[in-house]
Amino acid sequence: MNDNNKDDKTLNHSRRQFFKISTALTAVALTPSYILKAADDNMDDKIAELFEKRDLNIEVNGIVHTLSIEPRVTLLDLLREQLKLTGSKKGCDHGQCGACTVHVNGQRVLSCLSLAIMQDGKKITTIEGLAKGDELHPMQAAFIKHDGFQCGYCTPGQIMSAVACVREGHANNEDEIRSYMAGNICRCGAYPNIVDAITEVKQKGGTI
Amino acid sequence: MGYYFEDGDRVNGKDIVTGKAKYTAEHDIPNLAYGVLVGSTIAKGSIATMDTKSAENAPGVLSVITHLNTPVVPGYDAGGLPIKTPVSGKNLQVFNGPTIYFNGQPIALVVADTYERALFAATLVKAQYNKEAQVTDFLEAGKTVKAIDTAKYKDNIRGEVDGYKNAPVKIEAEYIVPIEVHNPMEMHATIALWDGDDKVTVYEKTQNIKSAQRNVMSAFKLKEENVRLYAPFVGGGFGSALRTWPHCIAALIGAKKTGRPVKLVLGRDQMFNSVGYRPYTLQKIGLGATADGILIGITHEANSITSMYEEFNEGSVNISRSLYNCPNVTTRYKVFPFNVSTPTYMRGPGEATGAFALESALDELAYKLNMDPIELRLKNYAEKDPENGKPYSTKFLKEAYKLGADKIGWAQRNPAVRSMKEGEWLVGFGMSTGVFGAYRNNAKALARIFADGTLLVQSAVSDSGPGTATSMTKIAADGMGIASSKITFQLGDSALPPGPGQGGSSTTASLGSAVHDVCESLKKKLAELAKDAAVFHTETIHNPKPEDFVFENGYILLATDRTKKLSFTEVLKQNNLNQVEVTEESKGSEEMKKYTAFSYNVHFVKVLVHPTTGVVKINRVVAAADAGKIISYKTAESQIIGGAVGGIGMALMEEGVIDDRYGRWVNNNFADYHVPVHTDVPHIEALFVNQPDYILSPTGAKGMGEIALIGFAAAVANAVYHATGKRVRELPITPDKLI
Amino acid sequence: MINFNYVQASTQKNVTDTLMKDGTAQIIAGGTNLVDLMKRGVAAPQKLIDINNLSLKNIEQQKGFVRIGALALNSVVAENELVVQKFPLLSKALQSGASQQLRNMATVGGNMMQRTRCSYFYDTTMPCNKRNPGTGCGALKGYNRMHAIFGATENCIAVHPSDMCVALAALNASVIISSSRSERKIAFTDFHKLAGTNPEKDNTLQRGEMITAVEIPDANNFAQHSTYLKIRDRSSYAFALISVAAALDMNGGKINNARLAMGGVAHKPWRLTTAENFLKGKAATEENFKQAAALAMKDAKAYRHNNFKLTLAPNSIAEALKIAAAM
Predict the structure, then answer these.
(1) What mean pLDDT comes out for the span B286-315?
(2) Is the pLDDT of residue A27 over 60?
(3) Which of B259, B320, B411, C2 is 20 to 30 A from residue C134's alpha carbon, by CA?
């Protein structure tokens, strides 16, 4: 893996090392010794796994989920892989494209850089939670009307960002919309149509 | 027309805006395992030893697959890699031996029960290499690196060799297009599920379903009916998904080895060296003209790159052979192998590279001649194909020049360099021509009308964004005379009648013709079924023939007496049928062989350039296209707009960078490899000549995807020159090049 | 990413105690940089201390300064009334950075703690003294377009990527740093350090310490004439090639005082005191701005791919001053 840079200590951590280190930490100070032994001997993965997981209560689109997850799971992967809510997209996984934008307690954030464990007790809204039944959210309808997408992959992120953009009061003119939508990349290049869609929703007024 | 097509909205829009659309990695497959590829950290040499033990022992890991333990892939070359010289069409055979051809080449696949565990375990795989010195410095082309020397790369000469040199006015210049990477927003992915040893289901990000299916078939020696491949939604491609890449085969290998369905999604970093890119190309242009602007000669040379295992080439210099009427044209194209992954077609392949050089050079010549750039182009307007003397099927480029020029106010600008200002910003106007062959390939479509009056149309095509289902629905609606809301166009499944690949701007002309033809056949069949109905037999009407009917609004009507009609529903009912279906294959016409077909797009750009910081803002864009008949106006406009946005990226910011010391990418992410964002893009006006080309296809459509981008970067460079007096010949035009 | 232990801290002492005890623990707040670094294997803390429950979000007027809690979100600070009114420069700098989604996550403290965006730092197969001391600087003879022109050594030529910090450096802010035993206050410009011989350290924070607040003196007259100019390869959502924070205290056409700092040029926000001193008492003319810019460039040194910064930097300084003066 590491040809140019022989001694990169940070990467080599097995379960065993993790648990050895963990013994010093308060959170697992109460870990029964047989579990540590099991981990040490690499014997019982199932038991050891339990101690790598944490409880999480999270409300997604109005439904409360009680889960047990590894702390390293991102909100995006939790949504897509565990809750099967694949509307939130993975476009880069590094906070550089905006495709994974969701609302956490009403604020737009990037779910790929959010650890799921840190969202305990919070309310998440994804693209799947935007429409009211069969009735599209005005922003969704405006995106269709103005053809604010081509392949559609960045679209959920664009729409979640656009809804927040209007709610924040950052959609007063086209330049402001562009600035506050700059974190959502569209490789197909639907930008002008997206700006038109947001402008229309903003101008129609009302609560969205 | 357009009567039956209520609003032009995309037929799959609702699925997209609600998040219901399922892209490749999003299909819910029970018992799914996750595959992560480990890339080499050297660019040339071979794997000496591999340590996979700690990865194998990591929690949740099902298997670590390398060249040492891979299941046999029957379609691979026996004896494994190496390939000594680049071979055309030779994809990298993943895990077929220890040879390393480029940095980041897959050396292992880790399969685990969760994504997080697979990703972590992948970091534990270690390899020792027998390292050799790689070459990725493209300036070595023609020096230490020799060109691939086969017959297809010999000089192509029309008239006198390098005839431009004898002209009274001439310019010579070098242009560079760096590596550009497709980077569709959806990262490439595969899900593979084996059913026994000889049957597999594959979810694949592909622009070409049947070709992907064939690739899987040939790698694993499987029968067509035993490979089912799905791609219902494709999150962009721009060419990267036109072929099947090693990671797809790796996913199939992983699924075979573990006995579990395996999902493999490339990381964004892997998108830079796994699925092709537009190759770095150095070009030299020589133009020669008379003092009044008649072209005497064009010489266009291009040196491009490929990988060590596969020969890739594209038509970068072809534009100079066909766009202008010129007696003496010399083109030279050479390809040099480096220790990189294989490039591939990227939107406007070849021509986008060539047009940047040629259309910049034309602008340079226009300034040298003190002539309007459009006038120069009109003076050398080709009325017939200069390569072979054939007439054009249709050509409305002149009309496009006028349409665009009028719209942007071309005549009102002051053509003198550095003469226009807004505040302290320098203002520049530039234009260029984009051209791409208009193609029509074989395609099959099925149409089935049901007793309830709804219509199903099917073809194994995929849609990476242009809106194929939407335009096919439109063609079927107009063809059958029913409302688009009654039509379902089904795609994305290899079991459907074979559709074309979505590439080369040919989908609408190819598949649209099949849909057109299948509707004609279906109407004939309906007419056959209807002609004996009582309503069509009166005292004055006797034995109507199928051609005596017209089809409107879900009814079959007698052309001579429209009060005599029968709904499609009634036709089926009277014949005791639940459905009627036909399948048609459409091929290019014989007539077309007498013609040459091109699509055109003229780009007009207004830029603002800051005089001391070199910041360039694209202030206005007008595109005027001759793309034949516009089938679906809304999606057509979007495609032109999208191409212009891609062009803004190409012109101002996109550049792939490899550190030659390691042969390794240094900007393989979206923070360092810049693509345009909202603030880079102004309103873009898309205009169409909208004249049908019925010689090319019964739909009247030519192509659009490529011309939307081809030439755009030259229009920007020309506008920047007008604004600043600085001619930037090496893309992208970043601030440092203007201060 | 390695799996790690996750704890939520309920008190500040809780945090600093844990940091003191456990060298493998790291604070997480917004996580916008840390989670990314962990994904790439650049950072691998074995314990994350989530400090979001601490009450460090306030932005308040105190006597002679505005105090901004370390957990105040970038988006909140940017639109905070006090900040907009008194320090429009800070507001503008914040809005020039990242995207609204990231600003909604990122905190003031986290912004200060973000690491360089140097490609060689991010790729764990490449040499990098900052990530892995002793392996060399990959950028020195590599691709260094984005890199430093001031204060670099051959150990490291990386730049600090923050916009906010450039504004805070110009505004003479202070940083409040707490440990379990004490609290100290240092000048903002002393918080980040140059690469020197230990580029693995970005700042002067000691083990067991955390940032709790930033204080900005409000006894100034810079609000009227200030701007943040950011030059980059695309018009938004990109790191700076060069950025300039410029603030002028003007009296008619005369400059009483000037504050200047640059981003994208050094391992820390780069304060331009020589240029500031030159401008003191001078007329606000283009000529003076150009001279000030030229003075600021003394000791600048370029590498293979960033030679353009030697021109772009002074041009940007002069341009920023022009914009600020014209306001």
Answers:
(1) 98
(2) no
(3) C2
Both tokens of residue B94? 């993943």
Q: Judge whether residue B348 has pLDDT over 90.
A: yes
Per-residue pLDDT tens digits for B101-136 = 999 999 999 999 999 999 999 999 999 999 999 999
Task: Give yes or no for A43 touching B (CB within 8 A).
Answer: no
Chain C nearest-CA distance from B613, in A, is 6
Distance CA C145, CA C149 (A): 10
Element (H, E) at C27: strand C25-28
pLDDT band per the 50, 70, 90 thresholds, residue A48: low
Q: What is the mean pLDDT of residues B244-248?
A: 98
Is the pLDDT at A46 greater than 60, yes or no? Answer: no
From chain B, pick out residues whose CB is under 8 angstroms from the CB of A155: 16-17
Domains of chain B: residue spans and CATH: 24-133+186-235+241-272 (3.90.1170.50), 281-439+593-738 (3.30.365.10), 441-587 (3.30.365.10)
Using a CB–CB cutoff of 8 Å, tell me whether A182 touches chain B.
yes
Whole-number Å distance between alpha carbons of B285 and B262 = 49
- Listing DSSP states for B68-119 in one string gives TTPPP-TTSPTT----SS-EET----TTSSSEE-STT-EEEEEEESSHHHHH
Considering only the beta carbons, identify the residue of C35, C52, C237 that sits closest to A183.
C237
The residue among A31 and B463 whose pLDDT is bigger is B463
Domain boundaries, chain A: 9-50, 54-93+100-129, 138-204
Q: C124 and A182 in contact by Cβ < 8 A?
A: no
pLDDT in tens, B470-503: 999 999 999 999 999 999 999 999 999 999 999 9
Q: What domains lie within chain C, and their CATH numbers?
A: 5-52 (3.30.43.10), 225-326 (3.30.390.50)
Residue C175 pLDDT greater than 70, yes or no: yes
How do residues C3-18 score in pLDDT, each as one tens digit?
A: 999 999 999 999 999 9
Which amino acid is residue C167, in one-letter code?
A
Burial class of residue A48, CB neighbours in 10 A (0-12, 13-18, 19+): buried
For residue B546, what pLDDT is reported? 87
Give the distance from residue A141's alpha carbon to the nearest chain B alpha carbon, in angstroms: 8
Identify the H or E element spanning B579: strand B579-586
pLDDT at B637 over 80: yes
**C-alpha Rg value of chain B to the nearest Å:** 28
Rounded CA separation A67/A48 (Å): 17
Q: Which residues of B have a CB under 8 Å from any CB of C?
A: 41, 116, 119-120, 123, 610, 612-615, 617, 652-653, 657, 659, 661-662, 664, 666-667, 669, 671-672, 674, 676-680, 732, 734-736, 739
Judge whether A181 is closer than 8 Å to chain B, CB to CB. Answer: yes
Q: What is the predicted ipTM?
A: 0.98
Chains that touch B (3 or more CB pairs under 8 A): A, C
B676 touches A at CB < 8 Å = yes
* B116/C141 Cβ within 8 A: no
Q: Do domains A54-93+100-129 and A138-204 have the same CATH topology?
A: no
Q: Which CATH number fits domain A138-204: 2.60.40.1180, 3.30.200.100, 1.10.150.120, 1.10.10.10?
A: 1.10.150.120
Specify the fold of A54-93+100-129: Ubiquitin-like (UB roll) (3.10.20)
Nearest CA in chain A to B668: A92
3 state SS of B229: strand
**CA distance linking residue B708 with residue B661, whole number of Å:** 37
Phi, psi of C95 (to 5 degrees): -70, -15
CA distances (Å), origin B452, targets B5, B63, B474, B550: 19, 52, 20, 20
**Using one digit for the tens of pLDDT, what is the confidence trace for B524-540?**
999 999 999 999 988 88
Name residue B195's amino acid: D
